[in-house]
């Protein structure tokens, strides 16, 4: 599998069959960073906010847009949407959010979108086993560093990938990844660059944090 970060909550996944799935695309200019250039078969959208819903910028003649909270198989990829909220007041501030769990190349991947609440036992059970967890850590509109680590403890993934944090040029008032990383042993933090290719054999014995960069 190949994983590339396009900034914010937008990641590109390509499996061994060359199926490409893109999460939460943004248009770049609206948030002050480079627009993703990507061709995809599947696009997941956790919620309909401008920094996550730019499906129009993703190329692909037969791309399928995935929204909503239900289980389905799209182009051979099992995908399950789990309901959550964008804030700690049951959506009163910022509405609903869908967390997507999908399987590619035998790996269980979970993208939490703009999760803004701590999960309950039912949500954790619906998510199930996770190999790689993509979790927002920047606060303000989503979980902050402390909330993110509480959620990680509940889900217990093998690899944690922080997202939705401040990078150079970003126009949104959210925190950098530094506060999140200060809460974990630096020996467990791996800087993977902008793109990584991996198989199940590349996974650590214990939990690690993989930090992508633009």
Structural overview:
The chain is mostly beta strands and 214 residues long. It has helices at residues 121-127, 145-155, 178-181; strands spanning 2-5, 11-14, 20-23, 42-44, 64-66, 71-74, 77-85, 96-104, 107-111, 132-136, 159-163, 189-193, 195-197, 208-212. It has an eight-stranded mixed sheet with strand order 6-7-8-9-10-11-14-12, covered by helices on one side. Strands 5-4-3-2-1-13 form a six-stranded mixed sheet, with no helix packed on it. Helix 1 (121-127) links the parallel strand 9 (107-111) and strand 10. The model has no long low-confidence stretch (mean pLDDT 96).
Features:
10% helix, Metallo-beta-lactamase, Chain A, 214 residues, mainly beta
* Average pLDDT for all residues: 96
Number of strands: 14
Helix content: 10-25%
Q: What is the percentage of strand-forming residues?
A: 25-35%
Q: Unreliable stretches, pLDDT < 50, 5 or more residues? A: none
Q: N- to C-terminal separation? A: 19 Å
Radius of gyration: 16 Å
- Architecture, according to CATH? 4-Layer Sandwich
Structural shape: globular
Please tally the helical runs, counting DSSP H or I stretches of 4 or more residues: 3
- What is the name of the CATH superfamily? Ribonuclease Z/Hydroxyacylglutathione hydrolase-like
Q: What class would the helix/strand composition place it in?
A: mainly beta
**What is the ordering of alpha helices and beta strands?**
EEEEEEEEEHEHEHEEE
Strand order of the largest sheet: 6-7-8-9-10-11-14-12
Number of domains: 1
Largest sheet: 8 strands, mixed
The CATH topology annotation reads as: Metallo-beta-lactamase, Chain A
